[in-house]
């Protein structure tokens, strides 16, 4: 029986490199962002709120980063029909807003980065640019958002049902 396992996590220097790369991408696309970088346990390592970003994104980006680090998945991949239930089950610490990705290298989750204040597509692009600062990080290029934010799903609407 094994009592110890190998783990890896971002350092402060790694977190700052991720933050700097994400800020550069946000500047490039002209969208001010809030950006959070966390370690494997979801603990905040680095944060930046660019001038002109949305104040509420301070909270949502941290939750996106925590969700990604602890689930080993990008945020926004859960179907909109379960968003509320999963959020409540996780005591409001889980989010399905697009824009958080784990920083995973060689199968190890090192932490996560999340961006917010733009569209889901912009948030994800900025998060990916941040993760790219870590050599070998997975960019989750096959990820497809499933949440209401990018799919246009309206809760309670079931177009497949014909009402007569």
From TrEMBL:
SUPFAM superfamilies: GlcG-like. Pfam families: HbpS-like. It comes from the Bacteria. This is Uncharacterized protein GlcG (DUF336 family). InterPro entries: GlcG_carb_metab_protein, PduO/GlcC-like, PduO/GlcC-like_sf.
């Amino acid at each position: 029986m094994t009592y110890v396992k190998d783990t890896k996590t971002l350092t402060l220097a790694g977190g700052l490199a991720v933050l700097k790369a994400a800020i550069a991408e946000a500047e490039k696309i002209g969208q001010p962002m809030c950006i959070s970088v966390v370690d494997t346990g979801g603990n905040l390592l680095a944060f930046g709120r660019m001038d002109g970003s949305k104040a509420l994104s301070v909270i949502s980006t941290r939750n996106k980063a925590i969700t990604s680090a602890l689930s080993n998945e990008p945020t926004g991949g859960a179907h909109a029909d379960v968003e509320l239930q999963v959020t409540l089950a996780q005591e409001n610490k889980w989010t399905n807003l697009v824009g958080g990705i784990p920083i995973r290298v060689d199968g190890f989750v090192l932490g996560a980065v999340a961006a917010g204040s733009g569209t889901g597509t912009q948030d994800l692009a900025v998060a990916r640019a941040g993760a790219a600062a870590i050599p070998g990080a997975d960019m989750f290029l096959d990820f497809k958002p499933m949440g209401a934010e990018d799919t246009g799903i309206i809760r309670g609407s079931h177009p497949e049902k014909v009402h007569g």
